[in-house]
Design brief:
Blueprint (H helix, E strand, L loop, with lengths): L13 E2 L4 E2 L5 H4 L5 H7 L12 H6 L3 H7 L13 E3 L10 E4 L17 H7 L2 H17 L4 E2 L23 H16 L4 E7 L12 E3 L2 H8 L1 H8 L4 E4 L3 E2 L2 E2 L4 H11 L5 E4 L8 H5 L17 H11 L5 H17 L14 H14 L2 E5 L8 H5 L1 E4 L1 H4 L19 H9 L5 E4 L7 E2 L5 E3 L8 E5 L4 E4 L3 E2 L10 E9 L4 E10 L1 E7 L2 E6 L16 E9 L4 E10 L15 E7 L1 H17 L2 E7 L17 H11 L3 E6 L14 E4 L7 H9 L35 E3 L8 H7 L16 E11 L2 E10 L5 E12 L10 E10 L4 E8 L1 H4 E4 L4 E4 L2 E8 L5 E9 L5
Bound molecules: beta-D-glucopyranose (BGC).
Length: 870
């Protein structure tokens, strides 16, 4: 279906800077092979094509009931499935399918390798690592008796504050495509079926079940669809359709998306499953939805459709059985491709150390050194001999984001412990929290129990209606409440002085809610709740509300807790004593913590301050600023000591009002279970950061592509207008000439690189861009050489000033040089023509930029692409 406009022709081109005529050499003379491993990892030919079983005969032997059993999930009788279960048909040798999340590791009740957040994988710009990343999940998933992985996620980062940005692969379709192809090959190479999600335009969490993404044809094809297309070509077994609507139709009901685009244009042969409960009608089967997940009724409002209702429709002649057969065949074909039919492939053992090595390598390679003034990093011996380490995530590793991607890790270490271990003799490291995440129990002096105005505390009611006054609510540790009980506390709460307070609800062995003046303020437990990803130091789930309170104003307070299993994405195990604490941080306490941190920073030779955000499914961030009071913490620490390194554990961009006062900023994302060791190695210079930003970091909340209009985000009356078109991420910053805080592709190193000898030749369906990169520093390090393409002088449609068309991650010893060849193919030279509804080469003279980021161009030349050949 692609345009047949080849061959392209390269005209003599002038190097603008040097005014030299490019000498064209015969392509064969110049072409240097891409390193073998990289080539293998990026190949997108379908890896498994073998057919083992006669699926048509199987289908003929199946009853309608048996067929329908494959088209929806159900409860796993063995309780092993991570996220979904499809029963098998024993008499026909069809095994059950167990489905598990998710993009950062295998998520069942059992521990697994918690890999770094996928955004960190994207930051490696390394398909070879992506393949290893996928292989860890494929192998561990198979070993854990799972068959289908609900990963990778390739929704383009459009909204910088979107809750799931950490789960996906950045803002550029080419980068996301290169990574996802390799990752799928890694997953499926272990015999596990991969699922690419969420198809399509599922770009933020607010109103995610209802929002209608009004997105133009061109942006869909150029920005939001390409990574899915690449996933299909890489052989992905399954596609998960998204919750949202696209141009008025639910993605899971859309014939245009599921059939015309996915199958007829991309050639998809696998099956489409719904996101969890994202099915709306029986007509969806005809449109192209094959399987309803999880298929477990969620009350009368959420009946299972692809079960009895579908049977009745087929038996009544309303739905042809051939449609059921089509969907069943698509599922069985994929199971067959993986050798799952007729006995099934043997399951491997988990290799804990191999998984850990991959997690660590990705954490090292995806770390992005954003700033490094006056050689602040790596830390020197002197610095380590007198080092202040500040911030809660220095003590508790924030290894992953929240939601369905959360994995119970095999192991984790505290970053401060890893630093001490690696720094060894002579190190003197002083830790201060700087922020009080635990707080202290709210004292009885500010509480008045309901019905007892003379007393202090809250009125407690047990489930048998007995009451008593509790001076404080702190039933934790040996003072815990019995398993599976329910309790309520009622009264008023009166702030002693006017100021900004934090109120905290902390629970264990159950879930709780805290209300103020009749409004629910906080919850712990439940599928989506307010609990932090960082538990209290005694292991409780902790939810915090920040409130400005007036002195003497009594507020009605109600706190309820219920013991029992469930709650939260990782669940609460059954049979645990119920723990609950009502805690707070007063303005004075908060100030005292900040002052303690600044004093520790001032007394030390060097400082590392850890800051974090909590990206999570189901919730967008209200602002790009770090959660309070971290900006104040970083600012006061940096003011006390200019040799301050800020270590960021965030899933996406954050604002940095304090940037100019700091020595260095190292972006460690959510670095997975080996993140502490990787962090320590990078800080101490035992490893060199080599990651690059897969997303633009904006200067402020207002200076982002979607900030100008609520129509764009979060949408108006359930409709989000994607009228920024193709101007997503750096394409928008460049087109609007808006200065970012850090541009897409940015990342420093402990060494330096020089670029030279750019030459471009025609090759195959486009051009080969060839240049040299030399490590001019004293350390071995990794560089990501990036190639961007500009629009023609007279573009056929609005085009981005620069778009990424290729990249190569290089590891170069000091003093050595590498020759790099990046191919610009026909697709990269094309734009989506809304007249032809197809790709079309944007012909004419176009600039080629080679550099270290989208804004740091080191070499420049031009090509002339022409349609129609010589
Ligand atoms: C998420 C999916 C996930 C599924 C199963 C949904 O809520 O959107 O990404 O795979 O749950 O956990």
């Amino acid at each position: 279906m692609t345009t047949m406009l080849m061959p392209l022709r390269l005209r003599p081109v002038r190097l603008r800077a040097a005014r030299l005529l490019v000498v064209l050499l015969p392509a064969a003379f110049c072409t240097l092979p891409v390193p073998m491993a990289a080539q293998e990892a990026t190949q997108i030919a379908a890896p498994f094509r073998t057919r083992h079983t006669d699926v048509d005969s199987l289908l003929q032997a199946m009853t309608l009931e048996e067929k329908l059993g494959l088209l929806h999930g159900t409860e796993d009788p063995a309780g092993k499935a991570g996220a979904g279960y499809v029963p098998g048909i024993e008499r026909l040798g069809i095994p059950p399918l167990r489905l598990t999340d998710g993009p950062a590791g295998i998520r069942t009740a059992l521990p697994a390798t918690a890999l770094p957040a996928p955004v960190m994988l994207a930051a490696t710009f390394d398909p070879v690592l992506a393949r290893r990343f996928g292989a860890v999940m494929g192998r561990e998933g198979r070993a854990r008796e799972q068959d289908v992985l609900l990963s990778p996620m390739v929704n383009i980062v459009r909204v910088p504050q979107a809750g799931r940005n950490f789960e996906t692969l950045g803002e550029d379709p080419l980068l996301a495509g290169r990574i996802v192809a390799a990752e799928i090959r890694g997953i499926e190479g272990e015999g596990m079926l991969a699922t690419v999600k969420h198809f399509v335009a599922n770009n933020f969490e607010r109103d995610r079940l209802r929002i209608d993404a009004a997105v133009g044809e061109r942006a869909l094809h150029e920005i939001y669809l390409p990574a899915f297309e690449v996933a299909v070509r890489a052989g992905v077994g399954s596609v998960m359709c998204a919750y949202n609507k696209v141009n008025g139709t639910h993605a899971c009901d859309s014939r245009r998306l599921l059939t015309e685009t996915l199958r007829e244009r991309f050639g998809f042969e696998g099956w489409v499953m719904s996101d969890w409960y994202a099915r709306h009608s029986l007509e969806a089967l005809e449109a192209g939805l094959d399987q309803e997940m999880p298929g477990v009724s969620f009350g009368p409002m959420q009946p299972v459709l692809f079960s009895d209702s579908l049977r009745v429709a087929v038996e009544g002649g309303g739905v042809p059985e051939a449609l059921v057969d089509r969907a069943v065949r698509r599922i069985l074909n994929q199971m067959d491709r993986m050798g799952m039919l007729g006995g099934g492939a043997p399951r491997p053992e988990i290799d804990v150390e191999a998984g850990a090595a991959t997690a660590r390598d990705v954490a090292l390679a995806g770390a992005v050194l954003l700033r490094n003034e006056h050689g602040t990093l790596p830390l020197t011996r002197d610095g380590v001999a007198s080092l202040a380490v500040i911030g809660p995530t220095a003590k508790t590793l924030l290894y992953g984001g929240g939601g369905s991607s959360q994995v119970p890790p095999f192991r984790q270490e505290s970053p401060i412990a890893a630093l001490e271990r690696r720094a060894g003799v002579g190190a003197h490291i002083h830790y201060v929290a700087g922020i009080d995440l635990d707080g202290v129990p709210v004292p009885s002096t500010v509480l008045t129990p309901a019905g007892e105005p003379e007393a202090s505390g809250l009125m407690r009611t047990a489930s048998d209606s007995t009451t008593q006054v509790d001076p404080v609510v702190d039933y934790t540790g040996s003072n815990a409440l019995p398993v599976d009980t329910e309790w309520t506390w009622i009264g008023t709460f009166t702030a002693p002085v006017t100021g900004d307070y934090e109120l905290k609800l902390q629970t264990g062995g159950g879930s709780g809610t805290l209300s103020l003046d009749g409004n629910r303020l906080l919850s712990t437990g439940g599928f989506f709740n307010d609990a932090s990803l960082i538990p209290t130091s005694d292991g409780l789930s902790s939810a915090t509300a920040r409130l400005h309170l007036e002195a003497g104003e009594a507020r009605d307070m109600e706190l309820s807790v219920r013991g029992g299993a469930g709650g939260g994405f990782l669940g609460t195990p059954a049979g645990q004593p119920l723990q609950v604490r009502l805690a707070w941080v007063t303005p004075e306490r908060r100030q005292a913590f900040l002052e303690e941190a600044a004093a520790a920073a001032g007394a030390a030779r060097a400082v590392v301050v850890f800051a974090y955000d909590e990206g999570t499914e189901g919730r967008d961030r209200p602002t790009l600023a770090l959660p309070e009071p971290q900006d104040a913490l970083v600012a006061s620490v940096a003011a006390a000591n200019p040799r301050t390194t800020v270590l960021l554990n965030t899933g996406d961009p954050v604002l940095m009002p304090w940037l100019g006062e700091t020595g260095a900023v190292l972006q460690m994302w959510y670095p997975g279970q080996e993140g502490a060791d990787a962090t320590a190695a990078l800080l101490l210079g035992e490893a060199v950061p080599g990651g690059r930003l897969p997303v633009t970091f904006p200067l402020s909340d207002e200076l982002t592509p979607i900030a100008s209009a609520s129509e764009r985000y979060p949408g108006v009356e359930g409709r989000a207008s994607y009228d920024e078109g193709i101007y997503v991420g750096y394409r928008w910053y460049d087109a609007e000439d808006v200065q970012p805080l850090f541009p897409f592709g940015h990342g420093l190193s402990y060494t330096t690189f020089a670029y030279s000898a750019l030459r471009i030749t025609t090759a195959g369906d486009g051009f080969d861009v060839r240049f040299r990169v030399r490590n001019t520093g004293a350390l071995e390090g990794s560089e990501v050489a990036q190639v961007y393409l500009g629009p023609p002088d007279d573009p056929p449609a609005n085009m981005a000033p620069r778009q990424l068309v290729g990249f190569e991650r290089l590891r170069i010893p000091p003093g050595e040089e590498r020759e790099v060849t990046v191919h610009i193919g026909e697709r990269q030279l094309s734009y989506w023509s809304v007249e032809e509804h197809d790709w079309s080469v944007a012909s004419g003279r176009r600039a080629v930029y080679v550099g270290r980021s989208s804004r740091d161009v080191r070499l420049r030349d031009e090509i002339t692409a022409e349609e129609g050949g010589h």
